[in-house]
Prior knowledge:
Blueprint: H1 2-27, H2 34-40, H3 44-49, E1 54-59, H4 64-80, E2 85-90, H5 97-102, E3 107-108, E4 110-114, E5 120-125, H6 130-142, E6 151-152, E7 156-157
Parallel strand pairs: 1-2, 5-6
Antiparallel strand pairs: 1-4, 3-7, 4-5
Amino acid sequence: MVQRLRNFVVVAVAIVLSVIVVVGLQTRTPAASLSEMAEASVPLEQAMQNGKPTLMEFYANWCTSCQAMAGDLEQLKAEYQQDVNFVMLNVDNTKWLPEMLHYRVDGIPHFAFLDGAGKDAGTAMGEIPRAVLAENLTALVAGEKLPYAQVEGATSDVETALQPSGASDDPRSHGSQVVQ
């Protein structure tokens, strides 16, 4: 009898906990999707030609810092999209390798702030507080020096295949190795 009562209590607690988990999962606010944000962002070519300042974010879908900042960036975009281009470039797409090299992206998220002429106004890298990004965007729109240029927070490393593994430093080797 005691064993049956204990089993009943264990089953009842398991059911209650399961219901709490299911309800909790259904009521949480969905996080902004990086892929959807990138799809809705201004194309780089358009941003470089429309005369507006630009916030260019280098990101990856697997980057936890990028994911953590997605909601803040959606809010900033809603506030500043009339005055600032929001461009997102996925570091996993080799199409953006020239931009990654130009802006010296070695950790993500990496933010490049560009003035209306497309000139570099400053950078920030890592998980940056929303308030810091907002102050930089306000200064960018006003044509002022960014108060938080060259800011760094927590980042995810970017792995690039710029040199094949095992390749020699000698450019004439064409990737071959000397066996001794």
